[in-house]
Amino acid sequence: MTKIVVIGAGVAGLTTSYLLAQKGYDVSIIAKNLPGDIDPEYTSPYAGAEWYSLASKDEIFEQELDKPGYFELRKLAKDPKSGIHIIDSYEYIKFEDADNYEFPWFVDFVEGFEMINDRSKLPDDCKFGFKFSGLTATTTIYLYYLLNKCVELGVTYKRYKLDHINDAFSLHHSGEKSDYVINCTGLLAGKLNGVNDPLVYPVRGQTLLVTNTPKKQLTVSNFEGYDDEMLYIIPRKEGGTILGGCFQKHSTVQEVDTALIQRISERAVKYCPELIDPSINHNKNYLDIVKVNVGFRPYRKGGPRIEIDKQNSKIIHNYGAGGSGYQSSYGMSGKTIELLEKSIKLNGSKSKL
What global pTM score does this model have? Predict the structure, then answer.
């Protein structure tokens, strides 16, 4: 049985480990952070975790990463333990953006796509909108869910801070040298010796968790004077909502921006007044903020790195998802496993079973 060490226990590492275990590989996860930890560099718990692909119509590779997640996560939503929520996802398009607006590439396959042209159903500054049947995951619940799925299939996990990627080969739970290492370290790929990827950079996000719960997800872009901000409203299955946000490249500021809290709050109430409608989901008539979250998305210049290491063909890289970690998790993991099996053939490794 081929022995594999997966580095990282964010959504990328856990999804990759889960799919590997399903295929019969002997997997150990090693990670600095595990589900339940709070660390700005451990991005997965901070994510909005909705499915909404930002790939353009020309970005075919990115589309291939995002599309599988729509179907796989909807399947998992049937399990109440997953924390995945099927919910209508809306986008409103402002007048100044309407003439040049390019509809998302995914409108032909998502379920329930519908245009919104009735102005009485739109904010005053929006010309049209659309909706489709979307989904979101409660990150803390879903990460534990994935970890438990892994354990049920024999995957082990251990907290460990690597000094060098090559050290991972000696950390398989069997005590024997691992045959392969899969690198799902996210932001830490920029710091891990043996990888030290200079193309990795953080993108700061700040969100609010509120108890208020609307009946839909919502995205609105283009706020004058704030080019790196947008509004997204992402209700959770258990109640409560994530309100965001910002997209601040190369920022590692952990302190909360109080002015941004105010802007997010005002935008959320303007574009989704049902958030403070007591007749809907027992909402309070004000935004009831539970927590302000600051986290750092693991972006990479040029896009995700999914490739066999050029120096060691027994190391496969899978990181750099940016803000698309959940929706691209199945696509990225699937391509990573394809590369792994290609490398196994090239190396003449023994069968996994």
Answer: 0.92
